[in-house]
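dumping this here before i forget
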Amino acid sequence: MNKKYAVTLEDDERRQLRELIGVGRAAAYKRRHAEVLLKADAGPHGPAWTDERMAEAFGASVRSIEYLRERFVTEGLEAALGRRQRSRPPVEPRLDGRQEARLVALSCSAVPPGHCRWTLRLLADRLVELQVVDSISYETVRQALKKTS
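structure:
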């Protein structure tokens, strides 16, 4: 079967990968990626293992091997050896720094009449009243205050 992303290593890349595996201290995932790339090498000096054989030998899925080959071909050796960085956090923060500062200032201010202390629900409601945020849950208020104290 023809692979869409065939790994063909240059001599210096092959040497660099062998050094990474044999000498020095590197993270386990980097060493595994280097071993996979060496076995996937379809050049004249490479063994050109199949994805299925590599997946079985290294305890990975076939799709992981395919992703690694694709990253090597499209982005280069360093990108294939490293971990892919997220472009953004998994969930955008509900409060920015300015809004958190308003929350902390509000929690340190005088308690509204009829109450003996600030509750999380009172703080959440007051933030909405003051138009600091459009809506917010008391759990978000709790997490923000826990982070600042």
